[in-house]
Hints:
It is a single chain. The chain has one domain. Helix content is 67%, strand content 0%. The protein contains three helices and no strands. Helix 1 (8-37) packs antiparallel against helix 2.
Amino acid sequence: MPGGAFPVDSMMELNISMLIHLLLGPLLLLIALLYFCFPPKRINWFYGYRTSRSMRSQQAWDDSNRYSSRLLLRIALLVCLFQSAALLFVGAMHAILPAVIILTLAVLAVIPLTERRLRRLFDETGAPKAPGERDEKS
Length: 138
Protein backbone atom coordinates (compact mmCIF):
# COMPACT_ATOMS: atom_id res chain seq x y z
CA MET A 1 0.00 0.00 0.00
CA PRO A 2 1.32 3.44 -0.76
CA GLY A 3 1.78 5.70 2.25
CA GLY A 4 2.59 2.99 4.80
CA ALA A 5 0.42 0.63 6.80
CA PHE A 6 -2.68 2.84 6.75
CA PRO A 7 -4.51 4.10 3.70
CA VAL A 8 -4.28 7.87 3.24
CA ASP A 9 -7.99 8.32 4.07
CA SER A 10 -7.52 6.56 7.41
CA MET A 11 -4.54 8.75 8.27
CA MET A 12 -6.54 11.85 7.41
CA GLU A 13 -9.43 10.71 9.63
CA LEU A 14 -6.93 9.99 12.40
CA ASN A 15 -5.41 13.47 12.11
CA ILE A 16 -8.86 15.10 12.16
CA SER A 17 -9.76 13.07 15.26
CA MET A 18 -6.56 14.18 16.99
CA LEU A 19 -7.20 17.80 16.02
CA ILE A 20 -10.73 17.66 17.43
CA HIS A 21 -9.36 16.05 20.58
CA LEU A 22 -6.75 18.77 20.98
CA LEU A 23 -9.36 21.49 20.51
CA LEU A 24 -11.82 20.17 23.13
CA GLY A 25 -9.99 21.60 26.16
CA PRO A 26 -9.21 25.01 24.62
CA LEU A 27 -12.75 25.27 23.24
CA LEU A 28 -14.22 24.52 26.67
CA LEU A 29 -11.84 27.10 28.13
CA LEU A 30 -13.02 29.71 25.64
CA ILE A 31 -16.68 28.96 26.41
CA ALA A 32 -16.00 29.09 30.15
CA LEU A 33 -14.20 32.44 29.81
CA LEU A 34 -17.08 33.90 27.83
CA TYR A 35 -19.58 32.58 30.37
CA PHE A 36 -17.46 33.96 33.23
CA CYS A 37 -16.84 37.39 31.65
CA PHE A 38 -20.36 37.82 30.28
CA PRO A 39 -22.74 36.12 32.73
CA PRO A 40 -26.45 36.31 31.98
CA LYS A 41 -27.99 39.31 33.69
CA ARG A 42 -31.61 38.17 33.88
CA ILE A 43 -33.30 34.81 34.23
CA ASN A 44 -33.85 33.40 30.76
CA TRP A 45 -34.31 30.11 28.90
CA PHE A 46 -31.49 30.73 26.44
CA TYR A 47 -28.18 31.37 28.18
CA GLY A 48 -26.77 30.49 31.58
CA TYR A 49 -27.06 27.80 34.23
CA ARG A 50 -30.76 26.95 33.87
CA THR A 51 -32.44 24.61 36.31
CA SER A 52 -35.73 24.99 38.14
CA ARG A 53 -33.85 25.73 41.38
CA SER A 54 -31.57 28.37 39.82
CA MET A 55 -34.51 30.12 38.16
CA ARG A 56 -36.59 30.57 41.34
CA SER A 57 -35.15 34.00 42.12
CA GLN A 58 -32.74 36.53 40.65
CA GLN A 59 -30.38 35.98 43.61
CA ALA A 60 -30.31 32.22 43.05
CA TRP A 61 -29.81 32.82 39.32
CA ASP A 62 -26.89 35.19 39.88
CA ASP A 63 -25.23 32.92 42.43
CA SER A 64 -25.64 29.75 40.39
CA ASN A 65 -24.26 31.35 37.24
CA ARG A 66 -21.30 32.89 39.06
CA TYR A 67 -20.51 29.60 40.83
CA SER A 68 -20.96 27.34 37.80
CA SER A 69 -18.88 29.61 35.55
CA ARG A 70 -15.99 29.44 38.03
CA LEU A 71 -16.32 25.67 38.22
CA LEU A 72 -16.35 25.43 34.44
CA LEU A 73 -13.19 27.56 34.22
CA ARG A 74 -11.39 25.26 36.66
CA ILE A 75 -12.58 22.19 34.80
CA ALA A 76 -11.46 23.60 31.45
CA LEU A 77 -8.00 24.35 32.82
CA LEU A 78 -7.74 20.84 34.29
CA VAL A 79 -8.83 19.27 31.00
CA CYS A 80 -6.22 21.29 29.11
CA LEU A 81 -3.54 20.22 31.59
CA PHE A 82 -4.64 16.59 31.38
CA GLN A 83 -4.62 16.68 27.58
CA SER A 84 -1.13 18.18 27.55
CA ALA A 85 0.22 15.64 30.02
CA ALA A 86 -1.45 12.73 28.23
CA LEU A 87 -0.05 13.84 24.89
CA LEU A 88 3.45 14.05 26.36
CA PHE A 89 3.38 10.76 28.23
CA VAL A 90 1.12 8.40 26.30
CA GLY A 91 0.71 9.99 22.87
CA ALA A 92 -2.27 11.38 21.04
CA MET A 93 -3.88 8.09 20.10
CA HIS A 94 -4.02 6.78 23.66
CA ALA A 95 -5.02 10.14 25.16
CA ILE A 96 -8.23 10.72 23.22
CA LEU A 97 -10.62 8.39 25.06
CA PRO A 98 -9.49 9.21 28.63
CA ALA A 99 -9.60 12.93 27.85
CA VAL A 100 -13.13 12.72 26.47
CA ILE A 101 -14.28 10.68 29.47
CA ILE A 102 -12.71 13.13 31.93
CA LEU A 103 -14.14 16.09 30.04
CA THR A 104 -17.64 14.61 30.03
CA LEU A 105 -17.63 13.60 33.70
CA ALA A 106 -16.16 16.92 34.80
CA VAL A 107 -18.67 19.01 32.85
CA LEU A 108 -21.55 16.87 34.15
CA ALA A 109 -20.23 17.32 37.71
CA VAL A 110 -21.02 21.05 37.49
CA ILE A 111 -24.74 20.31 37.82
CA PRO A 112 -24.82 18.40 41.13
CA LEU A 113 -22.16 20.66 42.65
CA THR A 114 -24.10 23.80 41.77
CA GLU A 115 -27.41 22.30 42.87
CA ARG A 116 -25.89 21.31 46.21
CA ARG A 117 -24.72 24.90 46.69
CA LEU A 118 -28.17 26.25 45.81
CA ARG A 119 -29.84 23.87 48.30
CA ARG A 120 -27.42 25.04 50.98
CA LEU A 121 -27.81 28.79 50.33
CA PHE A 122 -31.45 29.18 49.20
CA ASP A 123 -34.82 27.93 50.39
CA GLU A 124 -37.46 26.29 48.18
CA THR A 125 -38.77 29.67 46.98
CA GLY A 126 -35.31 30.92 45.98
CA ALA A 127 -34.93 33.28 48.95
CA PRO A 128 -31.51 33.27 50.66
CA LYS A 129 -31.35 31.23 53.85
CA ALA A 130 -30.18 32.92 57.03
CA PRO A 131 -26.63 31.92 57.98
CA GLY A 132 -27.96 29.77 60.86
CA GLU A 133 -30.32 27.89 58.52
CA ARG A 134 -27.67 26.82 56.05
CA ASP A 135 -26.66 23.20 56.00
CA GLU A 136 -22.87 23.56 56.04
CA LYS A 137 -22.30 19.84 55.38
CA SER A 138 -23.91 19.74 51.93
